[in-house]
Design goal:
GNAT_dom, single chain, Nonspecific Lipid-transfer Protein, Chain A, Aminopeptidase, globular, Acyl_CoA_acyltransferase, 27% strand, acyltransferase activity, transferring groups other than amino-acyl groups, N-acetyltransferase domain-containing protein, 5-stranded mixed β-sheet, alpha+beta, binds coenzyme A
Length: 466
């Protein structure tokens, strides 16, 4: 194997993997090969037609106009035998931000991970992740996160650590009928750039409610991109932002739908935000009818089937979720809305010491509002091979010190299998829940209160962009 001597984060980095395979970063001219691989292989069943919307998505991602990545951000493996450059595995790197309470974090998001069936189980994806992680870390991202297939990414240092994509299913037969005169009190219309200030203000207001551990700040650039591009619906990936209004009110809120529906489902995802002071039981029936009407106009992503349900992807704490579960039917009983268990984000934190230093203001704020306000002392956290010592002085996290590698956990205040710490760090699980699930989590009784104060279980709203 030969190495080019450059950092794996470098656009010019090339590595020979043997057998004619070469690992490198993409260029704009790779768009068609990448689109071919993704649309041929990303299928639910090998007999399905090619995934053309995904091919368009790949072309758009490589067009240098997408807010999350540029044309050089696919890591790929090509097979050069016979003089060709057939791409046989690839994955790309997106960037977005998360707010850890009020500390903003750049997050690197590996996406569109795929390998040709004839090249699997040869470590190609592992090699690609080496590149994605190197670039993401070189850019200063302290976190990488994936919305991916079950289990697989654990092998690359990821752990499930934030709620993602729980949904409610509402059969269309349950949608309350329209009024006899046909006059709907609330309507849906396509959002325009004039709606942007109201949309952004409402989104921000919701983010500030509920003491979220992690939430997604959304830039004006992202909203503008979606508002001006959603009609290029060949990809099915854009956000179709729609405003709710009535005869008296121009803006009652907004919701987001994709630009294509899926088989028999009409999805609403990411946002369903209503201005304060509106009775949701008054608003929802006409909006449900309007969503169904939109769904009937939408192209179908793959395998068309008659629409039989609406699907709402809303976080567990979302007020619309609670209202939908209690919306009365014509007999005054709750509609039979079915709720699915949420999935979760995979999260990787390559350097916990750096991460903890970065979020120190949040940890200090939590301490200040607790019975441990003004705390001075040390907290040693052992990760079975690695140990961190946190020094607190008068409620400030003065230092996070990396100790020599050690496996002797008994002297530490608390010990965690390394990845099992991440659900605690992101407020996804409480210390009690994790201790119950992992017998190798050891916490000294004297450290329990401090750990629970620093890392409380909290809801999050980590909307995936893209
Ligand atoms: C999932 C997928 C990307 C794996 O590709 P691959 O080329 O086999 O990956 P690698 O060879 O680099 O495998 C890395 C490790 O995962 C293991 N592995 C491979 N496929 C796996 C799977 N489906 N589940 C669990 N582990 C798997 C490998 O054995 C290897 O382990 P090792 O390094 O200890 O030997 C490939 O099966 C694929 O393209 N599937 C269809 C598209 C897809 O689902 N993509 C993911 C979307 S989030």
């Amino acid at each position: 194997m030969s190495f080019s001597g450059l950092s794996p984060a470098d656009p010019q980095y090339v590595r020979d993997l043997g057998d004619g395979l070469r690992l490198r970063w993409s260029r704009a001219e790779d768009a068609e090969e990448l689109a071919r691989l993704e649309c041929e292989v990303f299928l639910n069943r090998p007999t399905e037609p090619l995934n053309q919307p995904l091919a368009w998505h790949v072309r758009e991602l490589l067009s240098d106009s997408h807010p999350l990545m540029g044309s050089g951000d696919f890591a790929l493996v090509e097979d050069r035998r016979g003089g060709g450059n057939r791409v046989v595995a690839c994955a790309c790197l997106w960037r977005q931000f998360w707010d850890y309470e009020d500390v903003r974090l750049l997050v690197g998001r590996p996406e569109l991970v795929i390998s040709d069936p004839d090249y699997r189980h040869r470590g190609l994806i592992r090699a690609l992740f080496g590149l994605l992680h190197a670039r993401s870390e070189a850019e200063g991202a302290l976190v990488q996160a994936i919305t991916g297939i079950p289990y697989f990414y654990r092998q690359f240092g990821y752990e499930y650590a934030l709620e993602l994509d729980g949904y409610l299913t509402l059969p269309v037969a349950l949608i309350p009928p329209a009024p006899d005169d046909g006059r709907e009190p609330v309507r849906l219309r396509d959002a325009t750039l004039e709606d942007l200030p109201a949309i952004m203000a409402l989104y921000e207001a919701r983010r500030q409610q509920g003491e979220l551990a992690v939430s997604t700040p959304i830039s004006e650039k992202w909203w503008r991109y979606q508002l001006t591009h959603w009609q290029d619906c060949r990809t099915g990936e854009h956000w179709h932002v729609q405003v709710m209004d009535s005869e008296r009110e121009d803006f009652l809120g907004f919701l987001v739908m994709p630009t294509m529906r899926w088989r028999s489902a009409v999805p609403v995802m990411h946002c369903f935000e209503v201005v304060p002071g509106v009775d949701l039981f008054w608003l929802l029936p006409p909006v449900l009818r309007a969503i169904l009407a939109r769904g009937r106009q939408m192209p179908v992503r793959r395998e068309p089937a008659e629409i039989d349900h609406l699907r709402f992807y809303l976080s567990t704490e979302h007020p619309i979720r609670a209202a939908l579960l209690r919306l009365p039917n014509r007999y005054g009983e709750p509609l039979a809305v079915r709720s699915s268990r949420p999935y979760a984000w995979y999260v990787r934190v390559p350097d916990l010491a750096v991460f903890l230093r970065r979020v120190a203001p949040v940890l200090e704020h939590r301490l200040a509002r607790s019975p441990l306000a003004g705390y001075s002392g040390k907290l040693s956290l052992h990760f079975y091979g690695r140990e961190l010592l946190l020094h607190f002085q008068a409620g400030q996290l003065e230092r996070v010190q990396e100790l020599k590698p050690a496996f002797d956990y008994e002297q530490a205040d608390a010990a965690f299998p390394p990845q099992a710490f991440l659900p605690l760090l992101f407020g996804y699980r409480s210390l009690d829940e994790l201790s119950y699930a992992f017998p190798d989590i050891e916490v000294k009784p004297t450290a329990e209160m401090l750990l629970q104060t620093l890392f409380p279980k909290r809801p999050s709203w980590a909307t995936p962009l893209g």
